[in-house]
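Hi all, posting the design record for the shared folder.

TITLE: backbone redesign
STEP: 1 of 1
STRUCTURE INPUT:
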């Protein structure tokens, strides 16, 4: 094959006279270990593509790629991603694949979807971002093995500039949102309200993880909060992450990002007749993100605390 001829021999072939003497080509091919067919291919390419192009081997290109993703499937994936982004949902490859499955479409792999989005320029390259494969995934082996509680502040788009604190309890194993609650601030009373709602639905967990907030856990300061006392009364072990290490509660922090993104996407809606903004109404009814569904679909696990079927979880219930 002509591709195996190095550049030095190619240069000699190209510079050989156009009218060689009898037997000169045969002798040249024998000396350099190539066939006459390979010799002729290099000469022909030098005439058609130029001498400079003939110095490098032509890379073989397949005429057809049987496993290549079709343009129709790529268009569907891009349309699903654009719709999720517009509505404020997570719109990564896993979320897009989950939506496509619900529509009865077999999606490409996560890596293929990521390459499609990169090729069409719909994602922002982050070369400095830590590779996904370098992370060590950790989760408790069973549902109700450990729950996480955390809250975040939401600014309502009303005239008074009101703020609310959204508290959510999440199962560490399945990432299922067990209960949500909106309060005026992050208080012990609000924490006990959302925790008691989750325990009433799904039973008590073995452990309960929070940060070192004054409303959650002050054991590192030698104090006991109302939430700790409530959990110990139920036989639950309250645990806490190290100070200034939010990655310990990384699952809950990631959940906050999903909900905040969803709320911000609906800022454009005007207030309703009662004067309550659409964002304010959403705070009263925060829904589970499609990312949580995609994580379960990827892992193949359908177990959830309490063995309940998927449903929307209301803020107040």
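Okay, here is what came back for every position:
SEQUENCE:
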């Amino acid at each position: 094959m002509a591709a195996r001829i190095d550049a030095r021999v190619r240069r000699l072939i190209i510079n050989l006279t156009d009218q060689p003497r009898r037997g000169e080509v045969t002798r040249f091919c024998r000396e350099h270990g190539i066939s006459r067919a390979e010799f002729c291919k290099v000469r022909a390419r030098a005439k058609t593509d130029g001498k400079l192009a003939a110095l490098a081997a032509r890379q073989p290109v397949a005429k057809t790629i049987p496993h290549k993703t079709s343009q129709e499937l790529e268009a569907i994936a891009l349309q699903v991603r654009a719709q999720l982004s517009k509505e404020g949902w997570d719109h990564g490859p896993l979320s897009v694949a989950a939506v496509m499955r619900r529509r009865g479409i077999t999606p490409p792999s996560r890596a293929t979807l990521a390459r499609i989005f990169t090729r069409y320029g719909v994602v922002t390259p982050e070369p400095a971002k830590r590779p996904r494969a370098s992370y060590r995934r950790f989760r408790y082996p069973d549902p109700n093995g450990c729950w996480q509680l955390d809250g975040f502040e939401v600014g309502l788009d009303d005239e008074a500039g009101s703020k609310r604190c959204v508290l959510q309890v999440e199962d560490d194993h399945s990432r299922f949102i067990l209960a949500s609650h909106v309060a005026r601030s992050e208080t012990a009373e609000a924490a006990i309200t959302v925790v008691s709602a989750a325990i009433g639905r799904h039973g008590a967990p073995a452990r309960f993880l929070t940060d070192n907030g004054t409303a959650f856990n002050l054991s590192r300061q030698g104090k006991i909060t109302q939430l700790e006392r409530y959990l110990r009364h139920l036989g639950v072990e309250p645990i806490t992450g190290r100070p200034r290490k939010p990655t310990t509660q990384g699952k809950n922090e990631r959940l906050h990002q999903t909900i905040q993104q969803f709320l911000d996407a609906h800022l454009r809606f005007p207030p309703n007749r009662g004067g309550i903004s659409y964002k304010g109404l959403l705070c009263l009814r925060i829904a589970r993100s499609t990312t949580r569904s995609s994580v379960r679909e990827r892992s193949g696990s359908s177990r959830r605390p309490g063995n309940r079927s998927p449903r929307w979880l209301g803020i107040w219930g």
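COMMENT: The radius of gyration is 31 Å.
Let me know if anyone wants the other runs.
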